[in-house]
Amino acid sequence: MSIANSHKIDTSKLDEIINSYEGKKSNLIAILQKVQEVYRYLPEEAMIYIGTKMEGLSPATVFGVATFYAQFSLEPKGKYEIKVCDGTACHVRGSMPVLNAIKARLDLKDGQLTTEDGLFSLETVSCLGACGLAPVVVINGKVYPQMTSDAITIVLDTLLKEDK
Ligand code: FES
């Protein structure tokens, strides 16, 4: 199943967001932030809708803005967003075995960013500025310091249990 195509876009929800910013194109970034909050990424259909609906914009402009800013994701994110730091300090202290343990526990194939059930997404990031705690993993903004393969597997098991 392709998660990217599994979102049904609720245009009335999009209208509500656009209207809450008075449909002004100067508010486009704030509007996209809101849409991303709802879907956890920017679905293509939503960007096309916004670009068609809002005055003075086009889908191409909306795509351009969305791809320019790193804060926007054009790929679906999981309910739990896992970021593994692969800056130098974390790399040296073993971030790759931790990353591999996450992939193994969540059954993520190479190149697959989000689990089939949409629960977890995984990415590597550069230095998070917490090198003293290396290797660092961040899940939904919570920092997990000095991770090991075993420790991260326990963290994931706990999240999976809590989510049931
Ligand atoms: S290298 Fe990972 S926090 Fe700095």
3D structure, described in words:
The protein is of the alpha+beta class and 164 residues long. It folds into 2 domains: 8-68, Arc Repressor Mutant, subunit A (Orthogonal Bundle), CATH 1.10.10; 80-163, Glutaredoxin (3-Layer(aba) Sandwich), CATH 3.40.30. It is 45% helix and 11% strand. It has helices at residues 11-20, 28-39, 44-53, 59-68, 88-92, 95-106, 149-163, and strands at 80-85, 120-125, 137-139, 142-144. Strands 2-1-3-4 form a 4-stranded mixed β-sheet, with helices on one face. Helix 3 crosses helix 4. The longest helix has 15 residues, at 149-163. Mean pLDDT is 92; it is low at 1-6. The protein binds FE2/S2 (inorganic) cluster (FES). FE2/S2 (inorganic) cluster is lined by residues 85, 87-90, 127-131, 134, 136.
Helix and strand topology:
Elements: H1 11-20, H2 28-39, H3 44-53, H4 59-68, E1 80-85, H5 88-92, H6 95-106, E2 120-125, E3 137-139, E4 142-144, H7 149-163
Parallel strand pairs: 1-2
Antiparallel strand pairs: 1-3, 3-4
Helix pairs in contact: 3-4, 6-7
Bound molecules: FE2/S2 (inorganic) cluster.
What is the element string, with H for helices and E for strands? HHHHEHHEEEH
Give average pLDDT, whole number: 92
Helical residue percent band: 40-55%
Spatial strand order of the main sheet: 2-1-3-4
Choose one word for the global shape: elongated
Any guess at the CATH architecture of the largest domain? 3-Layer(aba) Sandwich
Radius of gyration: 18 Å
